[in-house]
Amino acid sequence: MKERKNNQRKSRTTAYGPAVSGKLDVSRQGMGYVTVPGMAIDIIVKKENLKNAMNGDTVEVSIIKLGKNTKRPEGIITKVLKRGQTELVGTVDMNLKFAFVIPDNKNFTKDIFISEKNAVGLKTGDRVIVKITEWNEHMKNPEGIITDHLTADRINEIAMKEILLSAGFNLEFPKEVMQELERIPNAITPEDIRDRWDMRDILTITIDPHDAKDFDDAISYQKLENGHHEIGVHIADVGHYILPDTALDKEAFHRATSVYLPDRVLPMLPEKISNELCSLRPHEDKLTFSVVFEMDDQAQVKNFRIAKTIIHSERRFTYEEVQAIIEGGEGDHRDVIMTLHLLTQTIRKRKFEAGAINFLSEEARFLLDEHGVPYAVQIKTSEESHQLIEELMLLANKTVAEYVSKVRLKGKQIPFPYRIHDTPDIDKLKTFAEFASRFGHTFDLRSPEAIAKSFNKMIAHTGQHPEDEILHTLGIRTMSKAVYSPDNIGHYGLAFEFYCHFTSPIRRYPDVLVHRVLLECLKEDIHPLKRMKEMCDHCSERERKAMEAEREGGKYKQVEFMQKFIGEEFDAVVTGVSNFGFWAATVEHRCEGLIQLQNMSSRDEFIYDERQFALIGKRSKTKYQIGKAIRVRVAAANLEKRQIDFELIEG
User: Fold this and answer.
1) Are both 107 and 228 inside the same structural domain?
2) 36: buried, middle or exposed (CB in 10 Å: 19+, 13-18, 0-12)?
3) Does the pLDDT of residue 73 top 50, yes or no?
4) Alpha-carbon torsion 145, 148, 149, 150, what sign?
5) Among the residues of 8-52, which ranges form H helices?
6) What is the pTM (predicted TM-score) of this model?
7) SS3 assignment, position 275
8) Which residues pair with 66 in a beta bridge?
9) DSSP 649
10) Could you count the other beta carbons within 10 Å of the beta carbon of residue 282?
């Protein structure tokens, strides 16, 4: 309880009494909930007390009373401290010489006023992006300017930008960020490398997807005289270029993550940093932050060193090239790659023996034409080439977290952004275990370790049937969500006592924080960050929003892709159920559509059984359960609703 008080923001007194600040979340019904750092429960704000605050805003709220039927305190918004969304996609509505933009985002309930000066050339019905320029508590509507016109031939552009803006991500970097960027020198100076470990003479390679542009990690290898293996995990030294409290740093923190949509990447950092200065491109000297391991033939770490380094990558590999070598083909540095493969497979096996959960992952990736329109679906699975990099990154992350955890300042641990993953919710697990038993899988729920073993046993005994993938997906849904926190509880899914994110500072802000704290520890010059809890919470929230945006982008492409198959039939698997129908995904494309009960030819009445994840016919006892194989016809694909409708081919 003491720690929560220490983390709580300072309050000030308003006309309504003491006020605190936090982030506002507005429900579809118009009720507001303010999350305040250090407070265990949200503050509820009625619609009439929101004033001009909107969903996602950082606000000042005064507590006016405790609710009658809830333990939540009730408050009133007294000030908007920071707008959560300042750019929106919308439709122009002209009114004489001025205009309003009606936002597409239904959570944004105010139209944006466009003055006569800024409305020149607009007409009713225009699709635009509008940037809010002024909005104070005395203004009924925000005022804005038009930053882009979205014509009918750019419908995909409209959709993707709307997804990003609705999630609260800026499409462009602010002017002050770009000005600051121009002042960063392109060349590495002797001063930059004076105190670094020079590893340019050691064989170093990168392994990435074939279409990658930012290479934020590299691997070095050399055989030591004692017969051991020296493996270096080298990470782009973003902290060398992004200094605390600069415009670049503030914008990177605001975004907190890069967002990966099917046809674009919205980067956390400008291209000059992510694709040029910090990208570990071959045949270039690069500044890195490294964890270098000494291992024996059994992949046991005998020693490690963490240091700022300079490297020179000799070869850029794609995952496909490395996989071909692993499967027996020839290629550059074949002996080194095979050694790394054998060592990382040993590490991987030991990880699962220690209790890590081996959830299988498949990714459906759309292949796009030059206009961003999907023409095919590629199902990607994790292969040994991916696992080679994954295991080394996990080892580096784990090692850094454990190292920092042992550092003390005045006898106390220092604030640090651990990546934590709690044990599963036992009630969810009981329901899932009962469902999995119908497929012949038994679960031991007596301890977290037993649960992990049960999951791995289930995964090992499932084959390549589409319904098996549903079991894995449902199993993942029973798990807690991994988040960032200074309060370390370990990472259940990986079976690590200490874990953090160190290896991707180009695309994740927590990694930038880890680099800063780690450097202070190495220099023994520690300045504890009092805002660590607040910053961790923000990064976790931005990560969730990015994942939601990525799902929305994927759904849009699914609908766009299935438009060409209207009327065609496909094998499918039931993926979800509700009281009004069920969802199914095509086996061939992994595209998900809805089958509504009201559109089924059967006259049976169906009952929703939540415990069985099924709809069951009252008279016929026909069961549509998650994992059931069915046949469907594509009835509709509505881009505006982002919804595919299937018809069930019954019998």
Assistant:
1) no
2) buried
3) yes
4) negative
5) none
6) 0.86
7) helix
8) 73
9) -
10) 16
Measured CA to CA, the distance from residue 173 to residue 292 in angstroms comes to 35
Return the structure tokens found at 342. Answer: 């054998």
**b/e per residue, 78-92, with b = 16+ CB within 10 A?**
bbbeebbbbbbbbbb
Q: Three-class SS of residue 463? A: coil
| Tokens read off for 319 | 């995952």
Same domain, yes or no: 133 and 69: no
pLDDT (tens digit, 9 = 90+) per residue, 432-442?
A: 888 888 788 88
- Per the CB < 8 A criterion, the answer to whether 482 and 499 are in contact is no
Q: Residue for token digits 């800063």?
A: 516
Helix axes 509-523, 532-562, angle to 10 degrees: 150
Instruction: Encode pLDDT of 103-114 as tens digits.
Output: 988 778 889 999
CA gap 257, 543 in Å, rounded: 7
For residue 599, give the amino acid letter.
Answer: N
- Return the structure tokens found at 129: 């992006």
DSSP E strand stretches across 196-318: 197-198, 204-208, 217-223, 229-236, 259-261, 264-266, 285-295, 301-312, 315-318
Beta strand 217-223 with 204-208 is antiparallel
Q: Indicate whether 510 and 592 sit together in one domain.
A: no
- Residue range(s) defining the domain that contains residue 219: 180-418+498-551
pLDDT of amino acid 56: 84
Q: Are residues 365 and 229 in the same domain?
A: yes
142 in Cβ contact with 622 (< 8 Å)? no
Per-residue pLDDT band at 210 (split at 50, 70, 90): confident
Contact at 8 Å (CB) between 165 and 105? yes
The residues, any chain, with a CB within 8 Å of residue 451's CB and separated by 6 or more, are 423, 424, 429, 443, 444, 445
Q: What is the rounded CA–CA span in Å between residue 110 and residue 500?
A: 40
Q: Please give the backbone phi and psi of residue 165, each rounded to the nearest 5 degrees, phi first.
A: -65, -40
Q: How many other CB atoms are there within 10 angstroms of residue 593's CB atom? A: 25
CA dihedral (13, 14, 15, 19) positive or negative: negative
The residues, ordered by sequence, that sit 6+ positions from 243 with a Cβ below 8 Å of its Cβ are 249
Quick one: tokens of 520? 């202070």
Q: What is the Cα–Cα distance from 532 to 540, expressed in whole angstroms?
A: 12
- 478 belongs to a structural domain: no
Element (H, E) at 607: strand 606-609
Say whether both 544 and 411 belong to one domain: yes
Residue type, 488: N
Q: Would you say residue 487 lies in a domain?
A: no
Strand order in the sheet with 623-625: 606-609, 614-617, 623-625
DSSP E strand stretches across 389-440: 408-409, 412-413, 418-420
Burial of 299 by CB count in 10 Å (0-12 exposed, 13-18 middle, 19+ buried)? buried
